[in-house]
Amino acid sequence: MVQVGLTGGISTGKTTVGAMFVELGCRLIDSDRVTHELFEPGGAVHQAVVAEFGPGIQYADGRIDRSRLGEIVFNDPARRQKLNQLVHPAVIERQKEFLKAVEAEDPDGVAIVDAALMIEVGTYKNYDKVVVVVCSPEQQRSRLEERAGLSDKEIDKRIQSQMPLEEKVKYADFVIDNDGSLEETRLQVVSTYHELLNLA
Description:
Blueprint: E1 2-8, H1 14-23, E2 27-30, H2 31-38, H3 44-53, H4 66-73, H5 77-105, E3 110-114, H6 118-121, E4 129-134, H7 137-148, H8 152-160, H9 165-168, E5 174-177, H10 182-199
Parallel strand pairs: 1-3, 1-4, 2-3, 4-5
Helix pairs in contact: 2-5, 3-5
């Protein structure tokens, strides 16, 4: 089985590219979705995050308000690092469980871990190949504004909290340029998929 890390900058289109790989037959775990699950009330990660950042980050029903938490951590690198320390070990454990399960079910297949910060935290080294999704800064800002309704200042902080795209591509075995049409992106994904399948 080929283990693939899928990453890129915020709002470059990792989710779109990941879905295209799944359509082709790859198995994928979305680390952001895992984080959502870990944030659910009652779990150890939820308890640790609320203990660290205070009850003010919760909705009335106990769920974590990710936008409120985002305001805190994107304005303070030390707080952001603390959040990562609380969350990343549990996310990585889920990723390992996923890869082990796929290996058992489909030893000749392609398993993909979609994670925004794998290069920043060094877990990209765990994968056989790394795919980086890129787009122009203008597209990135436009998508982020449309998706999250953030101000220019908030957008700047979120983009700057991650490694620049030109740095990320230095770690890539494959680069998917998601600046054009969906069909243009899909052609790149199909080409990359066939290369990964040959490795498998």
